[in-house]
User: Which sequence fits this backbone?
């Protein structure tokens, strides 16, 4: 699928689809909810400055759609951006439709490459007990920072390419 497609949820997918950053979230340690900070700096091959998950590995930045959080709100949970430990809360993009290797342009300078879809939850973490459920293992995605820069709530996110197009 190389053209923009919009689903009934209002989320778009395909090259050229755009969404936006709802929230930028950080936490100084792992297994806790992240706090919205308004804006942050994404460092190349590191992640979001000041966040415990940043580092030299494949899950430098985590993304979760506001639409996923809204599902939890509809189930009666009192949750919002950052509560599932995501760094970037997005809106308008079908993150789960992105294959590994897909590239996203955030604002004008940041380039992310999708490295993982979902994650295994070995034990129920503190987030599960605090929120009553955790959508990150099912609906979160992870990326590495190819080109860094500032990111803030309201910035655009565009799908530049799908994973299979980046394979050599």
Assistant:
């Amino acid at each position: 699928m190389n053209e923009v497609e919009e689903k009934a949820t209002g989320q778009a997918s395909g090259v050229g689809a755009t969404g936006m950053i709802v929230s930028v979230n950080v936490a100084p340690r792992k297994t806790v909810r992240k706090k919205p900070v308004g804006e942050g700096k994404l460092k190349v091959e590191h992640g979001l400055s000041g966040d415990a998950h940043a580092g030299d590995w494949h899950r430098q930045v985590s993304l979760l759609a506001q639409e996923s959080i809204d599902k939890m709100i509809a189930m009666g949970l009192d949750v919002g951006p950052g509560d599932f430990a995501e760094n970037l809360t997005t809106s308008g993009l079908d993150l789960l439709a992105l294959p590994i290797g897909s590239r996203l342009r955030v604002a004008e300078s940041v380039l992310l490459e999708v490295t993982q879809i979902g994650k295994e939850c070995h034990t129920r973490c503190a987030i599960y007990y605090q929120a009553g459920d955790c959508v990150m293992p099912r609906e979160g995605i992870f990326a590495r920072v190819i080109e860094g820069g500032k990111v803030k709530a309201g910035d655009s996110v565009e799908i530049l390419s799908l994973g299979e197009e980046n394979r050599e």
User: Anything to note?
Assistant: Residues 62 and 86 are 5 Å apart (CA to CA). The longest helix spans residues 66-74.
